[in-house]
Each structure stands twice: as structure tokens, then as C-alpha cells.
């Protein structure tokens, strides 16, 4: 039986969903990079879970193109090529104005103000950051 927890909105989230999110975040943050081998036993240990939720998460990530599974070779983080990444960013640029318009219509003035405050904090942090 799959363990469940409540997310921030009070909805039930399966353990596979949380492992999925953790792996996806690790890919997005560069902790798992293109071509890295994804060993289910190592991931289960790293995320303090059993193998089955890891397998289910990897299947979902494979379906979304983030993980490649090769016969007799196991799972790997998909290798993203320059032109693929360029295409993704071009699509995001095209979608951004529509997403901003949607956000403005769907959220209150207080939520928009809170978002502006977060953006200002991020900007201030970036200017103070030492490389």
C-alpha cells in the first residue's frame, strides 16, 4: 500500500509524487545532470524510501522526457542538447505574456503585492551576492 501525505493545499499526495518531485528538483537544480545514471537502490536510500516509489517516479519522468531508460543499461538523466534547450526557452518566452495575464486576472492585489515583494527580495539578494 502506498503511503500518503498532505500537501500545502491539504490534498493527499502519494509517496511516488513526492519522490517524483524530489528527483525532478534535483535534475532542475543540477544535482543530477545530463547522462547521470539513476540507480533505484541508491535513489531510494538518498530519499529515504523503498524502491517501488522510485521506480514509479522514474516511469513518470521517462514519460515526460526527463529520464531515458535503455534496455540492460538502466535509467539515466536525459541528455539535453543545445537546440532542445533553446526551443524550450523560446516557447517559455512566447507563453510568458499569457501566463502573466492569467496570473493578474486570477490573483488578488494582495497576492500580486506579495509576489512583487518576493521579487524585490530576490533582486536585492542577487546584488549582494559575492562570487
Q: Which second-level CATH architecture of the largest domain applies? A: Orthogonal Bundle
What structural class do the secondary elements suggest? alpha+beta
* CATH domain fold name of the largest domain: Arc Repressor Mutant, subunit A
Distance between the termini: 47 Å
Largest sheet: 3 strands, antiparallel
Helix content: 55-70%
**Beta-strand percentage range:** 5-15%
List unreliable stretches of 5+ residues: 1-8
Rough shape? elongated
Strand order of the largest sheet: 3-5-4
Q: TL;DR?
A:
The protein is built from five helices and five strands, in the order E-E-H-E-H-H-E-E-H-H. It is an alpha+beta fold.
Q: What labels would you give this structure?
A:
alpha+beta; two-stranded antiparallel ribbon; Tscrpt_reg_HTH_GntR; GntR family transcriptional regulator; transcription regulation; WH_DNA-bd_sf; Arc Repressor Mutant, subunit A; WH-like_DNA-bd_sf; disordered N terminus; 60% helix; three-stranded antiparallel β-sheet; 131 residues
How would you portray this structure in words?
It is a single chain. The chain has 131 residues and is an alpha+beta fold. The protein has two domains: 74 residues, Winged helix-like DNA-binding domain superfamily/Winged helix DNA-binding domain (Arc Repressor Mutant, subunit A, Orthogonal Bundle), CATH 1.10.10; 47 residues, no CATH class. It contains five helices and five strands. A three-stranded antiparallel sheet has the order 3-5-4. The longest helix has 25 residues. The N terminus is likely disordered. It comes from Paraglaciecola aquimarina. This is GntR family transcriptional regulator. Keywords: DNA-binding, Transcription, Transcription regulation. InterPro entries: Tscrpt_reg_HTH_GntR, WH-like_DNA-bd_sf, WH_DNA-bd_sf.
Amino acid at each position: 500500500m502506498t503511503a500518503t501525505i498532505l500537501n500545502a493545499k491539504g490534498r493527499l499526495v502519494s509517496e511516488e509524487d513526492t519522490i517524483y518531485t524530489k528527483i525532478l528538483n534535483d535534475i532542475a537544480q543540477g544535482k543530477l545532470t545530463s547522462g547521470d545514471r539513476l540507480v533505484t537502490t541508491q535513489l531510494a536510500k538518498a530519499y529515504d524510501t523503498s524502491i517501488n516509489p522510485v521506480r514509479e517516479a522514474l516511469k513518470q519522468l521517462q514519460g515526460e522526457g526527463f529520464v531515458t531508460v535503455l534496455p540492460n543499461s538502466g535509467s539515466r538523466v536525459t541528455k539535453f542538447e543545445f537546440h532542445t534547450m533553446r526551443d524550450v526557452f523560446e516557447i517559455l518566452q512566447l507563453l510568458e505574456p499569457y501566463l502573466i495575464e492569467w496570473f493578474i486576472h486570477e490573483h488578488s492585489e494582495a497576492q500580486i503585492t506579495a509576489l512583487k515583494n518576493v521579487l524585490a527580495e530576490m533582486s536585492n539578494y542577487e546584488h549582494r551576492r559575492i562570487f
